[in-house]
Fold this protein.
Amino acid sequence: QQQVKQSPQSLIVQKGGISIINCAYENTAFDYFPWYQQFPGKGPALLIAIRPDVSEKKEGRFTISFNKSAKQFSLHIMDSQPGDSATYFCAASIKTGANNLFFGTGTRLTVIP
Amino acid sequence: GAGVSQSPSNKVTEKGKDVELRCDPISGHTALYWYRQSLGQGLEFLIYFQGNSAPDKSGLPSDRFSAERTGGSVSTLTIQRTQQEDSAVYLCASSAARGTEAFFGQGTRLTVV
């Protein structure tokens, strides 16, 4: 059972455009929602994360929007650049309790110059 | 070291052989995760260690897979009687506590021939 559902599987965006990746979850106990960025041949690296007490978090060109009632969260990349081309994973976990970090299936983003 | 270290970086083994993959987490990190990433796919959870608690082994795909973490630090993932479908990148991550940033190693690329 996929704890976190992610879409789209792949995304092609023109340079300067907005990239949007969506994730949904079912477990209302989740209280930590990170996004990871992975370049080929590398391990995933934390990009930005949010907790459910806020609806939006922005860091530079990257913004997480969080909708607690809908159990959805999304990553927006503004002014997308070719260097942003990578695979992006959303994830979720429970801060307390012996649980692991559940990942979405990933979105391969390609930003065309 | 400064980050999560995994060894070997690449491993080619013959079908039916046993392999051991090593993970050195960031010093002081209590949580350690193993994930498997098949070519172009998402992150498949394998096992999770948190402090001295019993590990969450719910993601191990078969009894050929096992892992241990000695002294709350180094972890070894063992795959017995390897099969071709075991070919993948095995990623290890550690975090300071539950619900905090997980730092990934570069992974071990396992090829079973």
The longest strand of chain A covers residues 19-25. Chain A has a mean pLDDT of 92.
